[in-house]
């Protein structure tokens, strides 16, 4: 079971990393802005292809190697876990190395060909675009939080019947494998962590809503569809994830309160189904957003180009723009949002919940 | 309504923004009572500093085109009768005077200037009537 879970995670990651060049908007290639009319350049298409081939071949080799080793060598649990955790990191590292190489090649090519240098650079905005924004309202995120509060109240009422050792960690077989002595705080600590995560989703939704809707001057309709799709699906993805973790944590809490309520089979299958649904949801999200607006042809006007923002993208990956009040912007390499690292509020939003979760898990 | 900004142009960004909003209203893309996006939203969409958008909105308010209502945003004002002693009239006179003076100095004929003014008004109205 443990091996299957580790294998599925790495397999899934390998597919996503391989597909990235084909899921990002076509006017940004390996983190470099390319004028719309040059995006079909033979060499750029070659870079994308080479990247995907290298990443997929490497992933295939390590995945098959992992599977064969796991089956033949019968490694002890600890070994299997270590290798299984190292696997996704190895795939990410190779993808990143390839990215850095092709980012440099693409920048070189852009400079050598002087792409976009004689164009007038334009920024555009649609004053009415916000009326088409379909992000979920903040109060939707309160429903899973209410469920958590309900489970906390239920735990308090059932406190006398709780076991003397409260589980804090569950193994891959679905059974608890780490415990802490019973106390009012430890009885609800997992639920407090859950509340922090739910609040984080709510805050991310609100800050994303307040972040800019970036339109392209040369691909106005296509970029509008993509931005609105990205915002809508980010919002839904976070909402569904919030609901799913609420269900998982409530399930674990109930299994602690009523020992033996769920059979071993259920304890095994629930976290596994959770994992599969979240990974599946990520694929749907990436494909929906990745294809949004891509079927719309070019509307570019001769001599006009989008404002070149490469100066704000360090290494093509990290956005630093202190003029832009947006906290979240669309990623350049990957599907989803990334932080504007020049905005201190963004750090607070991401680090705050992590610190809170650490405090809850260490102090209690 | 689409706003085009050229960050590398000689005209400051806030002036480009002000001009385009005024033209958008003249063409009927936006009507009295409509709201402009919040300063933060428009600055985020354009990726420009909030001060830039704020400056443009205050310029529009000074010229009597929008009204900034605290907490609810910038609303486009209904046109009023502008009398000759109002400072808006004075401002328009100044602007026209410098443009016309430049035209005359360049050698553009009086009839040409008159034709130009008429055709610009027609152009702005044409789209406003289609709406």
Notes on the protein architecture:
- The complex is a heterodimer of chains A (364) and B (131).
- Helix content of chain A is 60%, strand content 10%.
- Chain A is mainly alpha-helical and 364 residues long.
- Chain A folds into two domains: 1-118, no CATH class; 123-364, no CATH class.
- A two-stranded antiparallel sheet of chain A has the order 1-2. Chain A has a two-stranded parallel sheet with strand order 3-6.
- In chain A, a hairpin with a 6-residue loop joins β9 and β10.
- The radius of gyration of chain A is 23 Å and the shape is globular.
- The mean pLDDT of chain A is 91.
- Chain B has 131 residues and is mainly alpha-helical.
- Chain B folds into two domains: 13-76, Winged helix-like DNA-binding domain superfamily/Winged helix DNA-binding domain (Arc Repressor Mutant, subunit A, Orthogonal Bundle), CATH 1.10.10.10; 87-130, no CATH class.
- Helices cover 58% and strands 9% of the residues of chain B.
- Chain B is built from five helices and three strands.
- Chain B has helices at residues 13-26, 39-46, 50-62, 87-106, 110-130, and strands at residues 2-5, 66-69, 73-76.
- In chain B, strands 2-3 form a two-stranded antiparallel ribbon.
- In chain B, β2 (66-69) and β3 (73-76) form a beta hairpin.
- In chain B, α1 (13-26) crosses α3 and α2 (39-46) packs across α3.
- The interface between A and B is medium-sized, with 26 and 23 residues.
């Amino acid at each position: 079971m443990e091996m299957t879970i580790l294998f599925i995670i790495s397999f899934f990651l390998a597919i996503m990393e391989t597909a990235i060049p084909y899921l990002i908007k076509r006017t940004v290639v390996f983190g470099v802005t390319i004028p719309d009319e040059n995006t079909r350049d033979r060499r750029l298409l070659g870079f994308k292809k080479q990247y995907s081939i290298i990443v997929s071949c490497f992933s295939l080799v390590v995945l098959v190697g992992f599977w064969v080793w796991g089956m033949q060598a019968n490694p002890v649990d600890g070994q299997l876990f270590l290798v299984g955790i190292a696997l996704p990191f190895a795939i990410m590292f190779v993808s990143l190395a390839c990215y850095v190489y092709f980012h440099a090649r693409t920048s070189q090519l852009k400079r050598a060909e002087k792409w976009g240098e004689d164009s007038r650079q334009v920024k555009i905005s649609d004053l009415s675009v916000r009326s088409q924004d379909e992000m979920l309202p903040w109060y939707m995120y309160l429903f899973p939080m209410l469920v958590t509060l309900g489970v906390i109240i239920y735990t308090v009422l059932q406190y006398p019947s709780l076991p003397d050792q409260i589980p804090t960690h569950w193994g891959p077989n679905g059974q608890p494998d780490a415990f802490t002595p019973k106390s009012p705080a430890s009885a609800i600590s997992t639920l407090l962590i859950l509340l922090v995560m739910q609040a984080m989703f709510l805050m991310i939704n609100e800050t994303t809503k307040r972040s800019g809707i970036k339109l392209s001057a040369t691909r106005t309709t296509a970029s509008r569809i993509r931005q609105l799709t990205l915002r809508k699906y980010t919002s839904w993805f976070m909402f569904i994830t919030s609901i799913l973790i609420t269900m998982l944590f409530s399930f674990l809490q109930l299994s602690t309160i009523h020992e033996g309520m769920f059979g071993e089979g259920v304890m095994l299958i629930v976290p596994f189904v959770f994992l599969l649904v979240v990974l599946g949801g990520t694929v749907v999200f990436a494909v929906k957003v990745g294809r949004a607006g891509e079927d719309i042809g070019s509307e570019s006007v001769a001599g006009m180009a989008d404002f070149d923002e490469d100066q704000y993208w360090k290494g093509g990956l990290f956005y630093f723009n202190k003029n832009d009040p947006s906290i979240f912007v669309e990623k350049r390499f990957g599907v989803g949002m990334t932080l504007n690292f020049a905005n201190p509020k963004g750090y607070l939003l991401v680090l705050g919940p992590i610190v809170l979760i650490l405090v809850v898990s260490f102090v209690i | 309504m689409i706003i085009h900004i050229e960050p590398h142009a000689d005209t400051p960004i806030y002036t480009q923004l002000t001009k385009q909003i005024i033209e958008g209203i003249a063409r009927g893309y936006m009507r009295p009572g409509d709201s402009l996006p919040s300063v933060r939203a428009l600055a985020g969409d354009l990726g420009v500093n909030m001060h830039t958008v704020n400056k443009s909105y205050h310029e529009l308010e000074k010229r009597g085109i929008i009204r900034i209502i605290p907490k609810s945003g910038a609303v486009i004002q209904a046109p009023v009768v502008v009398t000759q002693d109002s400072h808006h009239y004075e401002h328009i006179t100044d602007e026209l005077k410098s443009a016309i003076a430049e035209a005359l100095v360049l050698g553009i004929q009086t009839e040409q200037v008159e034709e130009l003014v008429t055709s610009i008004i027609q152009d702005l109205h044409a789209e406003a009537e289609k709406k």
